[in-house]
Design a protein that fits this description.
Length: about 350
């Protein structure tokens, strides 16, 4: 990639109302030098993952526009869904795609926080965090939207390092009730990857998630003691959730470094655990975009003669092996970062 490109991946807390989603996504279009590469709603999560990429300044302005439109159209008091969330725009990460753009992303995160002013409580996370305890999104989002009022009004909260936003009005008012809070950050490329499990309730899915995720599971002793047993895979977050609209469940994962834990390793680990419990997997899905290198690596695992295969053939092998098109058609030219950028912005 020859452009000085960055990516922004805002997740909004609306995955069911197509008109609202379209209006919010459209608010991020029309900024010269950036493009909306994808918008992927999920009705069960009641969440839409949107990918914007391009030059830093227009990407930042597109993100600000999207946040403002989300504040106008989403009321968190009416929201429910199976994915953790704390605000109308739950998370807004900036991701460097080209060498030397990490500083651009840091500036973009600061610009977003400045632009929303005191209207929206903002927590900075990832590389933009103001302290180490605040770097992890899961810690900042603990308790979700429902705990925010008590948390921001001096109620019970067991971690003062993460209690208050980095910027907000200082009082719990109408705009906070409506929007909730937002995490804005800078991180490296993260692959949101879900493995489908053929069960109606997430029993095996939850067990598999606790076995593979890096944090593992907590074991309780008879005397109240606890110990944490680490999971199988490195740099992986995971949880088991139900997908009632599809009649199946998922192990929903964030692969934080696909060079360490590639797609096929995560898939085959879940597949193996599910099989041990007499349950089958039924493909998988990517949420948002994925680096070409990650798909090629999995293609090499599944292709019968990888040394003779070209990039298109390796991608096809990965799609088939991972079952990426079992829930929805998988469009590689729109879902692979490098190919989508070339199509939308030129290379």
């Amino acid at each position: 990639m020859s452009g000085r490109w960055i990516e922004c991946v805002p997740n909004i807390s609306e995955g069911r109302d197509a008109e609202v989603i379209d209006e919010i996504v459209d608010s991020a279009r029309g900024f010269h030098g950036s493009a909306v590469l994808s918008a992927e709603p999920d009705a069960d999560y009641n969440r839409t993952v949107i990918t914007i990429a391009g030059q830093a300044e227009p990407v930042t302005q597109a993100a600000i526009s999207l946040i403002r439109k989300s504040a106008e159209l989403i009321d968190m008091r009416l929201h429910s869904g199976s994915h953790p969330r704390m605000g109308a725009v739950d998370v807004c990460p900036f991701v460097p795609l080209a060498e030397g753009t990490h500083g651009d992303c840091m500036a973009s995160a600061a610009s977003v926080m400045e632009a929303v002013g005191d209207d929206i409580p903002v927590y900075l996370y990832g590389d933009a965090a103001t302290s180490r305890p605040r770097a992890q999104l899961a810690k900042l989002r603990r308790g979700q939207y429902e705990a925010l009022e008590a948390r921001l009004s001096g109620g019970v909260w067991d971690d003062e390092d993460t209690r208050l936003p980095d910027r907000w009005s200082g009082s719990w008012g109408e705009s906070e009730k409506r929007f909730g809070a937002m995490a804005v950050g800078v991180r490296q490329v993260l692959v949101a990857y879900n493995v489908n499990v053929d069960e109606s309730e997430p029993l095996v899915s939850k067990a598999a998630a606790s076995l593979i995720r890096t944090s593992g599971r907590v074991i309780k002793g008879t005397d109240g003691q606890k110990m944490r047993v680490p999971g199988m895979l490195q740099n992986v977050q995971g949880m088991g959730v139900g997908l009632p609209t599809h009649g199946i469940c998922q192990v929903s994962m964030n692969l934080q470094d696909v060079s360490i834990t590639p797609l096929h390793m995560a898939f085959e680990a879940v597949n193996s655990i599910a099989a041990d419990h007499g349950v089958s997997t039924c493909g998988s899905e990517l949420v948002g975009l994925v680096p070409l290198s990650a798909v090629l690596e999995s293609g090499r695992w599944y292709h019968e003669d990888p040394d003779s295969a070209n990039a298109e053939e390796l991608v096809d092998a990965a799609v088939m092996g991972l079952g990426l098109d079992q829930l929805e058609p998988f469009d590689a030219h729109n879902s692979i970062i490098e190919w989508s950028l070339a199509r939308n912005l030129g290379d």
